[in-house]
Amino acid sequence: MTGRFGQVLALAALVVFSLFPLYSTLVVASHDNADLAAAIPPLLPGGRLLDHVGEVIERVDLGQAMVNSAVISCTVAVVNALACTVAGFAFARLRFRGREALFAVVIASAMVPTQLGIVPLFLVVDAMGWYDTLAAVIVPGLVSAFGVFWMRQACLEAVSTELVDASRVDGCSLARVYWHVALPALRGPAAVLGMLSFATSWNDFSWPLVALDPNDTPTTQVVLSGLAGGYYTDYPLVLTGVLVSIVPVLLLFVLFARKVVAVLAGGAAQTGR
What we know:
By secondary structure, the chain is an all-alpha fold. It is built from 15 helices and no strands. It has helices spanning 2-29, 33-36, 49-59, 62-93, 99-110, 118-127, 135-138, 145-158, 161-169, 174-185, 187-203, 206-211, 220-227, 235-245, 247-272.
């Protein structure tokens, strides 16, 4: 009982530590600057949150920005999950010349800093006439090196070589083996990858700032950066925008929380064995 109580206490402390930034954001967003400048700052949420939400909507085009971010993030999440599942299955269970070398190239590409590729990527996007279009942000994120590595490892654990060989002997084409054998076994890891891709794309700031015109095709993070501009920063207003912007990511995590825990626990169990 003492050991179990210690575990529960440690988990409770971790939960409090993890939720504190979100709670402090809510407290600041629901008060005025005068309340925050008091000798004893407020510790409980106030009643100005809805007023600040309305002010944020009036100052910036948050609605259109969230629609653009939703289109970008949903497209990237779905296509990235499917494309990386195909690539992971190929690297894990198909035999072809140069497989290991090609996989090494994929892993090496993940080590290149994102900032290093902004200039050449912008030149390509501009040459294709995609500047200030959602395609400029969507297409570069459709496949990720991390996603390929993630799905390859998942395929190595979930799809056996014997099952693939037996399906081919029974007359299944390669496409049917992927669709009927590999994909059902990889739905959990693919869902987790889609959720991570959605959150990454939703929170991306640097590339949308370069590839899109903030006044014409804004995204959520770019629009929110405008709230902190100027000589004076209204912190309750800025954190109100932050609070509104993270709602879709929180809802997505709530929907997929059980799937995430199951996939990570399964991976930990495989590692333990």
